Amino acid sequence: MRFLGPDVAVLTTRGDNYKGAAPKKLPKVQTYTLVREGERWLIAAFQNTRRKALMERLTFRFAPETRPTARR
Questions:
Q1: What's the domain of life for this entry (predicted)?
Q2: For residues 60 and 71, what is the distance between their CA atoms, to the nearest angstrom?
Q3: What is the distance between the alpha carbons of residues 70 and 42, in angstroms, rounded to a whole number?
Q4: Burial (CB count <10 Å: 0-12, 13-18, 19+), residue 62
């Protein structure tokens, strides 16, 4: 999660829809834009995108701060 200010955050997750056993790779990326209103955080925007492995590798190489925390 990245805080863009005291009342705005961006959360990026990986996932997929499936039945039965979980897939070994999670082919989709979800991005949530969250805003704080009072004491509550609300989802202001949501995006679900299929991952592109080549683009991820290039992005992480030239902007390592964008790599998910679990993979640093």
A1: Bacteria
A2: 10
A3: 25
A4: exposed
What is d(CA 71, CA 26) in angstroms, rounded to the nearest whole number? 14
The residue among 23, 41, 40, 24 whose CA lies nearest residue 32 is 41
Closest CA to 16 of 56, 53, 51: 51
pLDDT in the model for residue 59:
87
Q: pLDDT tens for residues 42-71?
A: 999 999 998 888 888 898 899 888 887 765
Q: Where are the alpha helices (DSSP H) in the chain?
A: 53-62
Spell out the domain ranges in the chain.
Answer: 2-17+25-71
